Amino acid sequence: MPTRLLLLLAAWLLALSAFAQKSLVLRSPDGQLTYRFRLTPQAPVYTVDFHGKRVVEESTLGLVFRQGGAWGAGLRVLAAQPAAVDEYYTLPVGKASRVRNHYRQLTLALQEPAGARRLVHLVVRAYDDGLAFRYEFPAQAGWAGYELTAENSSFRLAGNPTLLTLQRPNYTTSHEGFYSRLPLGQVRPDTLLDLPTLAEYPGGPYLALTEAAVRDYATLYLSPHEGVLTSRLSPLPGQTEVKVQATLPHRSPWRVLLLGQQVGRLLESNIITSLNEPPSLDFSWLKPGKSDFHWWNGDILPDTIFPPGRNFEFNQYYIDFCAAHGIDYHSVIGYGNAAWYQNDGEGYAPGPHTDVTQPVPGLDMARLGAYARSKGVGLRVWVHWQPFYAQLDKALAQFEAWGVQGMMVDFMDRDDQQMVNMQEEMLRKAAQHHIHIQFHGAAKPTGLARTYPNELTREGTLNYENNKWGPAMAPDHDLNMPFTRLLAGPTDYHLGGFRAVPPAQFRPQYTRPLMVGTRCHMLAMYVVLESYLGMVCDYPAAYEGQPGYEFIRALPTVWDETRAPLAEVAQYVCVARRKGADWYVGALTGSQARTLALKLDFLPPGQYEATLFADAPDVATAPNHLLKTTLAVSRQTTLPLALAAGGGQVLLLKKLK
């Protein structure tokens, strides 16, 4: 064991021996993050400092059980076990293909001194870019299981930071809404705040609160109560008291604090996946890629002798489009507010006899699967979660027999423990049939894509589908995504709309939806947003001969490295992603035009050919216009990025031999 680590362990043990009056301290590998823990008669408490600045004041921890009541008062520390880890792991889908997992850990065995004498382990990990903790419930005599009614983890943020957050009216939610940006002290008490929530301290740093490895547990929200952000768990269905039911041994998800002196460091962090388990199944079959999604464009079809809808010819038309344009997957959805499978419900909602294994008459799924294979295109299906889960094993076997390789599972609109467990069961069993899943109407990801890489993306945000029926998704709303929802992991945003109009000309259209924000803003969204199943949602003719479409065709969906060289909350963001030796860069602004100076010092040494797609001078009236230029650059180059109001810019940097 290295001498430095031995000294570190000795210091921790020395602190433990005098624990009655002192704190236990855990520091990050670089020493810039400090976690302090101590016991009080009422509850365990902790603080967090980052780069010499207090970010979390003394905050309480605790749990409340239906049987036995609260746990947290009068505890004693039975043991404190330190550890240090520095390792690398690979991700088949992610913003980096090889990730360093470097942290220091402290596990505290905390027990009630009398009564039930319940023993709970508090596990804390300190990274250079964040902190995580969770509760573990080891097997023990006299305590076989529990019903949790509350988790009293709290976050007393220092000062009065500005929050960027999504407020929710209740726990039954698709997590789709507009974000609020306001000081913590102005948030209405006891409001439910969705995660991730970003806190901005004057002069820095930036703190994002979220969770990781949500498995067999309820999803976490936060709520301001007497100025402190307190935990709120989504209750089990049909009641409001019990949040989690479990047998021991068991453990909670990780409560995560992402930290960075610059907000761009949060976008680069891999803590969320690092806190999840590696896969135990074989995923060598998995193929991330791009997919069409004709529902968004209104099922547009040119004049033909066959109707659009739930038939072979309509799907054949879109399969041919995918094959011709290098789009990996075609999605079988339905038509006219009716699913592709037999359904006696209203619209897409299931009825009592809905059967996802039976296509509607006239749609031969086996024939369609064979045709897609002959064109080198994968097949995906949309399903409502309820009838799919009711027939889970039968449906997956049938889908695999048809040649289906992926699914969109929709309309969950819940995130309680039961729904969390059902989603993991779907992922596990789908993997056994070599099928990937895209969850819609679902909560944020929590890094489970490391364990189940066949979870390629999730929705959980208000996105461009809203342009079909509601107010347009404005560029300022798009700009909130990287600093909130995207910190948790990939999202599907229904990208690819190629009919931008000036904001005054926007109107909702169910078919051929319109966009606000420039064409380059749309292209940049493909880079800035993380998704391993990139959507190309418009209809074929919308892309034919259109400038900028070649960038979408060339874009990968998984990455070897991700950097965020420029970022300012509510102002702009620039993300650079590497695949092999090539880099793809996307920059976004909101409603304000600006010019950014992008230093290319993230590039390795060498010469690169840069292909730039930039807003044209007339985008205020013709937002689909862009300028395409090519020039030679290196890591010494600084590029001016001129972004129009609602605009963007993208670069493809190819290394020259």
TrEMBL record:
InterPro entries in the cross-refs: Aldolase_TIM, GH, GH-type_carb-bd, GH97_C, GH97_catalytic, GH97_N, Glycosyl_hydrolase_97
Sequence ranges assigned to domain Glycosyl-hydrolase 97 N-terminal in this UniProt record: 26-278
Cleavable signal peptide: 1-20
Annotated ranges, domain Glycosyl-hydrolase 97 C-terminal oligomerisation: 558-653
Stored SUPFAM superfamilies: (Trans)glycosidases
Keyword Cell division appears in the UniProt entry: no
A Pfam family the protein falls into: Glyco_hydro_97
Listed name of the protein: Glycoside hydrolase family 97 protein
Origin species: Hymenobacter polaris
